[in-house]
Amino acid sequence: MSDHRFIRTAARAPGRCPRLARLALLTILLATIAQPVLAASSPAPIRPINSAAPASPASPKLTLEIQGADGPKAMGSALKIVILMTVLSLAPAILMLMTSFTRIVIVLGFLRQAIGANQAPANQILIGLAVFLTMVIMAPTFTRINNEAVQPLLTETISQREAFTRAQVPLKEFMLRQVREKDIALFLDLTKTAVPGSPEELPMLVVVPAFVIGELKTAFQMGFVLFMPFLIIDMVVASVLMSMGMMMLPPVLISLPFKILLFVLVDGWFLVVKSLVQAFQ
Questions:
Q1: Residue 182's closest CA among 190, 171, 173, 170?
Q2: What is the sign of the dihedral through the CA atoms of 171, 94, 204 and 221?
Q3: CA–CA separation, 157 vs 168, rounded Å?
Q4: Could you report the per-residue pLDDT of 209-253, keeping only the tens digit for each?
Q5: CA 9 to mean position of chain CA atoms
Q6: How far is 100 from 79, CA to CA, in rounded Å?
Q7: How far is the C-alpha of 190 from the C-alpha of 72, rounded, in Å?
């Protein structure tokens, strides 16, 4: 039944729900008035300018480009940077295998173990002390390398190959003062290298490993000498404890203060450092 028929029916029925008829009439009237207003105020549909899907934001790109040098001078600067980075990457190996660092750090490690104080001094302190002692010992060698190879290369008075050859000479002389002849002969035989006319003509492939095993032997000899007085203290303390029947008490616990006292009274650090430095001079 439509709205008009509902109104006429309600009007013909006197006494029947007149309020309902008036309410229906008011509702229809309001709907008729509001329809054009709502149609005018409704927003028009937004049409996309481009029917294609929106493009995703571009991600950043990282490119590495190597351009040609403008001249020999620019190429030389690039090669210097490459050589510098190579030397810095090989610096730890050079420090450990071609300087006095190996002997110093091994002797200091043996000294700490002989005293019995496993954590005092700490590894960082021992390595730092070894590095500074190495700088003291190697100062003349490094000065020669700087004066004869590095500075002429920076001023472009010599080529890079010549600078590398000049830098080898002071290091080789330092290592040859510490190396043993049988170690040189061993690596000459292992590398199938002919015996040169003079020690300065020995290749670094022979000198460096011979120097390293010679340093290891010398460091172990010095470590044995350092162990002996502390070992005697351990034996005396163990004998006293056994004679007193105190077998359950660790001898190291009693001997450690006596070993530290002995080392301090004889000024052990001064003697050890002095011996290490003078052994290379």
A1: 190
A2: positive
A3: 18
A4: 899 999 999 999 998 998 888 888 888 888 888 887 777 777 777
A5: 97
A6: 30
A7: 41
